[in-house]
Structure formats: C-alpha cells, structure tokens
Design a protein that fits this description.
Elements (H helix, E strand, L loop, with lengths): L3 E5 L1 H10 L5 E6 L2 H10 L3 E3 L13 E4 L7 H11 L3
Parallel strand pairs: 1-2, 1-4, 2-3
C-alpha cells in the first residue's frame, strides 16, 4: 500500500482531507470524530487515534496539517531515512 499518512486536525485538516485524493493518502490519522466522518465520506482509510500507539503502522511519508499532537522523535525517525541522501 503506497501513499502518505495525512495527520489532520482542525479546519485546515478538514480542508486537507476533502482536497487530497484517496489514491494519494495511505491513511488519514486524526483524533477528532468529526474528521473521522469527513475522511470516511471521502473514501479514505482511517487511523482514529494517537500515532504513538503501537497499533499505528506509519507510511513512508507524512503530511501534518494542524494535527493537535507533538510528534515524538521516535515517530519522526521512522521516516528520516527517506529524506537523507548518501
């Protein structure tokens, strides 16, 4: 499964969910029940919870749009190798 994780919150996150094509987004990650509904209406796969949970399987890339949590370094480091070039 390819695509990126869209970590979304607030009005900007709702806009991003509505705007991003489901083919581009691997999963929408959100904590807000209303945004879960918006993502479901748009046909997105959804992870409704804290991405720091063990159950979260991150994609190779992510876009955070007004996401309400600070991402811990361990979660960011999972993607760091994709950005570094030898």
């Amino acid at each position: 499964m390819s695509g990126l994780d869209l970590l979304a919150g607030g009005a900007l996150g709702a806009w991003a969910i509505r705007t991003a094509p489901p083919a581009l987004v691997r999963q929408v990650v959100c904590l807000d029940e209303a945004l879960v509904g918006v993502a479901a209406e748009r046909g997105h796969e959804i992870f409704a919870g804290d991405p720091h949970q063990a159950a979260f399987a991150p994609a190779g890339a992510a876009l955070s749009v007004d996401f309400p949590l600070v991402l811990r370094p361990e979660l960011i480091d999972l993607r760091r190798g994709d950005l570094e070039h030898p």
